[in-house]
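Continuing the series of single-chain predictions for the mutant panel. This is the parent chain; the variants come on the following pages.
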Amino acid sequence: MAKILVIDDEKSIRNTLKDILEYEKIEVVLAANGMEGLEQLQNQSFDAVLLDIKMPEMDGIEVLEKINTNYPEVQVVMISGHGTVDVAVKAVKMGAYDFIEKPLDLNRLLVTLRNATDKTSLITETKTLRRKISKAYAMVGESKALQQIRDLIDRVAPTDARVLITGYNGTGKEVVARLIHDKSQRADGPFVEVNCAAIPSELIESELFGHEKGAFTSAIKQRKGKFEQAEGGTLFLDEIGDMSLSAQAKVLRALQENKITRVGADKDLNLNVRIIAATNKNLEVEIKNKRFREDLYHRLSVILIPVPSLNERLEDIPLLAEYFIEQICNEYGAAKVPIEPAALEELKQINWTGNIREFRNVMERLLILCDKKITRDDVLRYARPLGGNHKS
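Parent structure:
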């Protein structure tokens, strides 16, 4: 059931709106002036606000400004009387969802409120989803190596500097990229990921830059590439070391000129995209072996962030274990399972060649196979089923 706050200084209008909306199974709260309405917003949540423009003491425009500042997710529909339509238009430009003239048209009122409440719900769901995504990409640990990464992220994120993230598979390079995006001025823009190793070399130009209809045999319609999809946000080029030399040349041109050209097009498109790249390869070796362009490397590596392996931060294992236990138990809808200190010490003795990715898989295996709690024996039995990955 939607919940609407009606702010109007005319009692008859308040009561009429209450009767109409409650008949439509909408919960209604009334406020006789702006201050009372703001108090209601402070004490409870609403899906939308019906706000009169002309009120004594604090008018609707002033109330709208305060709602936009303190409750930006709530949609406000202005109620305008004769002679206040120009003010209502101004209110929409300031962020109001819409305005309705008095006398109120019932059908328009209900349609507008339904659309406004849907928008509020969508904004709330998006924020919730972003929180879940942020939690899914949390950087867990208190080791010195990890703290250095956090410090780098905090310093780099507010800028538009290009970042090259290096490290072994499974160390969390994507986590670093997402945190940089989330802490940047582009956080409200898209985060678009490209796995350069997974795209065939003959398709990468179309994948990155898009194509026009008829540009090649299978181009049956125009398509935006990843650069365009990331407009106003961040493009994450994962496994950049696996990109072909011809594709590298095209990416270099895009970075140099801040422009791209769709395949089959005859005009350039301007870019407003931040580039973050990552690789598990030693690009200096790749450059020596003529497999990676040195000029592209210098374009990408304004800031270098090497992500440590799990073996380089074993002191983080207790925190990582707790984090994954809670996460996995929540996913399974199960009660949280304790882990013995001896089990944690045994986990530190393993050679984690697969890094965080491998560690999470092992924790999930232990939770499935353990009996009420994870013990040292469980780790010895289930964490190293193939043998050979214990430190010598």
